[in-house]
Every structure is written in structure tokens, then in C-alpha cells.
Specification:
With 142 residues, the protein is of the alpha/beta class. The chain has a single domain (8-140), classed as NAD(P)-binding Rossmann-like Domain (Rossmann fold). Helix content is 32%, strand content 18%. It is built from 5 helices and 7 strands, in the order H-E-H-E-E-E-E-H-E-H-E-H. It has helices spanning 8-17, 33-43, 88-96, 114-121, 133-140; strands at 20-24, 47-51, 59-60, 63-64, 78-81, 104-107, 126-128. A hairpin with a 2-residue loop joins strand 3 (59-60) and strand 4. Helix 1 crosses helix 5 (133-140) and helix 3 runs parallel beside helix 4. The chain is globular, with a radius of gyration of 14 Å.
Length: 142
């Protein structure tokens, strides 16, 4: 897939078909983008599960934080990544170890690794990189 541009239909379909989002790199700090995006997604009716090893067992925005994706006790539709692009290959490894596999891997703004994306796509996972659902949702699903 060409990750330089996505059709509106591709993005809107993902956002409409997603219910449960694991947010990797969630922060309890309300000044951090991950916290603001998580709050936005919660307000829009998504179930958002924060993932942050340093906050495991605590709560962020009223949601229990897990250390790793593998610790989440329910199926995940989308993994939203708020980590450096260099961390994406490791996140993909964690994603591919999940059963069932999530439908989508979403890399936030500046989070892009084409090789990691290709690995996820080879297992049938849709990939979006260098985009933010908090920008795309108002644009596509007003």
C-alpha cells in the first residue's frame, strides 16, 4: 500500500468499523498529545485501553492501564501508536503475537516505518501511518 496518501474511504471505513482501541504510549499528563487524543476518542464513543508499562495498574482518564498489548484481556480492533517511529517494529511484533489479531495498526503523526507496515499488512492488518484519528474523525465523520 502507498502510505504517502490514503483515500478518505479507507480512513473513514477504519474509523467506522473500530470500537476498541489500544493506545500505546498513553500518558496521564493532560498536556501530552496522547492524553488529549485519548480523551477525544473516549468522547466519540470508542473504548480506549491505555498501554504504558510505567503506568500499568493505574488509570488514565478512568481507564485501566496495561503494561503490554498482550496483557489486555479483550479483543482489540485498532492499535494506535504514540511512540517514536523507531519503536514501530517492536510494536508490530507485539501486535502479531495477539490472538485474535487487531484489524488496524495506526501510527500517529511522524510515526512511520514502511518495513514494519509491510510486515503487519502481510498478516492482513490494515495500516495507517503519520495520521491522527482526532484530526481525521472530524474531517471525515462530521
Amino acid at each position: 500500500m502507498d502510505h504517502d496518501r490514503y483515500s478518505d474511504g479507507y480512513l473513514a471505513g477504519i474509523l467506522k468499523d473500530t470500537s476498541v482501541i489500544a493506545l500505546v504510549g498513553a500518558s496521564p499528563n493532560p498536556d501530552r498529545p496522547s492524553n488529549r487524543v485519548m480523551a477525544f476518542l473516549l468522547r466519540r464513543g470508542y473504548r480506549v485501553i491505555p498501554v504504558n508499562p510505567g503506568q500499568a495498574g493505574k488509570e488514565i482518564l478512568g481507564q485501566t492501564v496495561y503494561a503490554r498489548l498482550a496483557d489486555i484481556p479483550e479483543a482489540i480492533d485498532m492499535v494506535d501508536v504514540f511512540r517514536a517511529a523507531s519503536a514501530l517494529p517492536q510494536v508490530v511484533e507485539e501486535v502479531l503475537a495477539l490472538t485474535p489479531l487487531p484489524n488496524v495498526l495506526w501510527g500517529q503523526l511522524s510515526v512511520r516505518d514502511d518495513a514494519a507496515a509491510a510486515q503487519a499488512e502481510s498478516k492482513g492488518i490494515k495500516v495507517v501511518m503519520d495520521r491522527c484519528p482526532a484530526i481525521e474523525i472530524p474531517r471525515l465523520m462530521a
